[in-house]
Amino acid sequence: MNYTRCVKNYKPFTGSFVRFYSDLKTNEIEVPFSNGRILKLSTGKYAKLADGCAVGTLGDTSVMVTAVSRTKPSPGNFTPLIVDYRQKSSAAGRIPTNFLRRELGATEREILISRLIDRSLRPLFPENFNYETQVVCNMLAVDGVNNPDIVSINAASAALALSDIPWNGPVGSVRVGCIDNEYIINPTRREQQTSILNLVVSATKQNLVVMLEANAENMLQPDFLKAIKIGVKESQLIVNSIEKLEKNLGKTKRILEKPLELSNEVKEAIESLTTMRVKEIFKNYAHDKLSRDNEVNCVRADVADKIHVDFPTLDYNLIVDYFSKVTKKVFRNLIFEEERRCDGREFDDLRKISCEVDLYKPLHGSAMFQRGQTQVFCTVTLDSHESALKLDPLTMLTSGIKQKNFFLHYEFPPFATKETGRIGPLGRREMGHGALAEKSLYPTVPHDFPFTIRLTSEVLESNGSSSMASVCGGSLALMDAGVSVSAPAAGVAIGLVSRYNDNDTKHIEQYQLLTDILGIEDYMGDMDFKLAGTKKGITALQADIKLPGLPLKIIMEAVLKATEAKAKILEIMQECIDKPRISKKDNWPVVDKLQVEAHKRSRLIGVGGINLKKLLYETGVQVSQVDDNNFTIFAPSQQAMDEAQEIISKLLNAERAPDLEFGGIYTATIVELRDIGVMVTLYPDMPPALLHNSQLDQRKVSHPSALGVEVGQQMQVKYFGRDPVSGLMRLSRKVLQSAAR
């Protein structure tokens, strides 16, 4: 073959290879924020079989989010949305530290971020959307600087917008921090550690707020409201960018199967049988949670049975579902018509509140907080810093927190709502409520407190806002335990009932905010807006909005109403206890500091830490080394501390043990016979050391008694130093016998 002719006739390939490259081409859009940081959203490269896929990148942190929805509806009248956010150690260049060296069950942080994403997406699904949908957030890379949770929300929004899944998005989400009175959009991990605000805002177009989540260092209300406005404004940049991406690359939304509906005749029959009877129940202010629910259930069963007799071919569940719709409509209309709530309260009234502290003597701190039919029992346990909650390595990397010396555990047993059920591992709801209450109280707890604080909140009765009741009860319990909180904290939930047309929540015709909502007002209403803080400012906020976005005006009004209600609750709490307890309880633990000279450290610690271990077993007192010369002593009571200090004093002031010479011969005294050898001492006050059977005699010895040795008998032994691993003395009698022969 002529090589020159081949080169001359060569033509570049422009066929299917180019088309193949075009398929792999990444379609990307950049979102520049006001502070210069850029969020990148791309699609078309990964997971093409999913209904929708998008990759979000902020700095060097990238998260891939996929969205998949079934094509057949599921039974029920709720949105079966599942959000799974999983941290991947490989994305951060780490190997999991568990035994199997792989990712196992979801951590608390993963569950909380999954809830954050869910609450940002769920309100924008169409009404009666009952197609099982799963959103999976898969970490690709984590740089340890930029937090992946905000990236995940925006990538999930882009994935749903680009998919064929019906969804009224997109939504944009940003984090707002505040350092030296300067607001920062999407702060880095280090910036967040010095920020007094951690606010996540999710909003859709036209500045409609979908979700709020925040914790703050007792931030003033005007500054907090300004941060919300800034967050909503910045989120519009993301919404506009995703809309452009959707316009160019989005799939055509699928047409859903039309759900089965009742005929007008049946609907009118249900309404005529239901409206007046249910209205009378909701206007009877003497009802409590149980009696009201029982009455409604009786009406529902009666109406469903009568309709089913007249229309036997109808699906029973359709009848019950429409009854619920009529009941909800009646409940909401009564609020506007009567200008009074179902329990007789005005819109701004609080339920009756009662508080009690110091309930049981063995507890370090305890409190009971009752608000209406919501009751929580809170306890405080004080322990050493060794009991601090250690976080997993990846959570440390992304949050910057290595351990927590204050943490709150929230429990919601089934009897709290007169139900039965399995009591076991916490669900996502319980974990989310506990995390919110913990964030609400954390800014008030001193960071240099000498103990680890575990606060538990068990809900004994529930009729709305148990998480905010946990804040109130938890603050009372902390003060009862003598924790020097900066100020008491309280929380309250604000509800919303509104009227609007055709999902146009930008122009709500009529609305009413409800202070301190009942469980039924949460279920029938449009919002659960929880706010906590001290008399001075705000420490936490969580807004679950059931509408496809709310105007900023309503959000601002809700913050104002919650602040007013919070102040009233704090006044009632202060009648019970107004400041941390000063007089100590007998069962309170105590902590002390100890400085030990360098040449005495070995006397205190002992070989392999034997002295400290013995001290812990005998007295329950824990001694921890802070640095070379300083130690901390934790004792469960003053009596235990006194006993431990007496032992420590003897250890430190004891005569110095003689220095033993390697290869030296010493007289040993037998103090104990064991199966494997004899325990001996070489000098007074020496911890007994083992002389093993194999070193007792030239002959094989199965038990020391075979040699006729007894306790108190003396013998010559040779010292060979200490074992480098265990630190135990190495002694031998056998080598001396060999030398003598």
From TrEMBL:
The keyword tRNA processing does not apply. Residues 663-734 form the S1 motif domain. Belongs to the polyribonucleotide nucleotidyltransferase family. InterPro entries: ExoRNase_PH_dom1, ExoRNase_PH_dom2, ExoRNase_PH_dom2_sf, KH_dom, KH_dom_type_1, KH_dom_type_1_sf, NA-bd_OB-fold, PNPase. SMART domains: KH. One of its GO terms (biological process) is mitochondrial mRNA catabolic process. Gene3D superfamilies: GHMP Kinase, N-terminal domain (3.30.230.70), K Homology domain, type 1 (3.30.1370.10), Nucleic acid-binding proteins (2.40.50.140). One of its GO terms (molecular function) is RNA binding. Pfam families: KH_1, PNPase, RNase_PH, RNase_PH_C. CDD domains: KH-I_PNPT1 (cd09033), RNase_PH_PNPase_1 (cd11363), RNase_PH_PNPase_2 (cd11364). It comes from Aquatica leii. Keywords: Cytoplasm, Nucleotidyltransferase, RNA-binding, Transferase. GO terms for cellular component: cytosol; mitochondrion. It comes from the Eukaryota. Its EC number is 2.7.7.8. The keyword Cytoplasm applies. PROSITE patterns: KH_TYPE_1, S1. This is polyribonucleotide nucleotidyltransferase.
